[in-house]
Amino acid sequence: MKKILLVEGNLREVNQEFTDNGIKTHTESLRESIDYFTNKLEIDSVNPSSDKDIFEKVKDLDKYDGLIWGGSSLNIYSNTIEIRRQIDFMKECQKKVKSILAICWGLQVAVTAAGGEVKKGNNGAHRGIAHEIIINSDGLKHLLYKDKKQTFNTPAFNYDEVVTLPKDSILLSSNKVNKVMGLNFKTEVSDIWGIQYHPEITYEKMVTLINFRKEKLLQNKSFTNEEDMNSHIQIIEDEIKVSNKDLRMRELRNWLNFI
Does the N terminus or the C terminus of the chain have fewer Cβ atoms within 10 A? Predict the structure, then answer.
């Protein structure tokens, strides 16, 4: 049986707040999505920001067939000790794990660990949904996008973007908000598939997160007012009506098949 590692990007305190409010953590959402495709995997999970023994686990990272690094509400340029721990752990993972799927925050950590750079986005943010991602010619040839429509919408929540790619990276997809929506690069050991969005998270959860973060989102001007926020939620709810679960999670399926 193949074995994979799930890496939680959020702090333990944030996850506890999710749980207290009936919201699945990102790792829980990821497990649920993996179970949709297969139950023939042995799955471990870690939290490099909060697990005190995280670097003990580095010693046997090469036992994993693959690793998925999920989302977070952190900003990598904040340079806190918790973020530095994640970057350091990612560097070790890139030395020992053959296949890494880096999702949203995971992409930003992977890029930073490999010498790239992430900054606050210049063209706005994705607030629960990303529209019109276009797969380029390299992306159409990549297994990440096997059987994916060339232009698609997807769940996404991010304010930051990759601005400097690691050496020998291949850009796979873009949209008007983020040039880097899909990316592939390799380290000495790892083949890293990175995406700046969340195929593993439902639109319904994104709506829940907007409502959960309502005060913060209004305070930081993500929305002009409650009416603006509610109009945006309606856009996401309209997308739910036409979204196809299998197509939405095609990238996750392709990576699971790849490993």
Answer: N
SS3 labels along 43-67: EEEECCCCCCCHHHHHHHHHHCCEE
- Provide the CA 192 distance to its chain's centre, in angstroms: 12
CATH classification of the domain holding 53: 3.40.50.880
In the block, tokens 């973060």 appear at 213
| SS3 per residue for 181-212 | CEEEEECCCCEEEEECCCCCCCHHHHHHHHHH
| Rounded distance between C-alpha atoms, residue 220 and residue 71, angstroms | 20
User: If you search the block for the tokens 């698609």, which residue do you land on?
Assistant: 152
Number of domains in the chain: 1
What pLDDT, in 10s, does the model give residues 106-129? Answer: 999 999 999 999 999 999 999 999
SS3 124: coil
Longest dimension (CA), the chain: 51
| pTM of the shown model | 0.96
Question: Is residue 65 packed enough to be buried (19+ CB in 10 Å), middle (13-18) or exposed (0-12)?
Answer: middle
| Residue 241 three-state SS | helix
Among 121, 99, 129, 109, which Cα is nearest to 199's? 129
Burial class (CB in 10 A: 0-12, 13-18, 19+), 88: middle
The interaxial angle of helices 203-212 and 226-242, nearest 10 deg, is 170
Contact 50, 86 (CB under 8 A): no
- Domain ranges, residue 12: 2-258
Report whether pLDDT(56) > 90. no
Strand-pair category, 41-46 with 2-7 = parallel
Shortest CA distance to 103 belongs to which of 148, 68, 55? 68
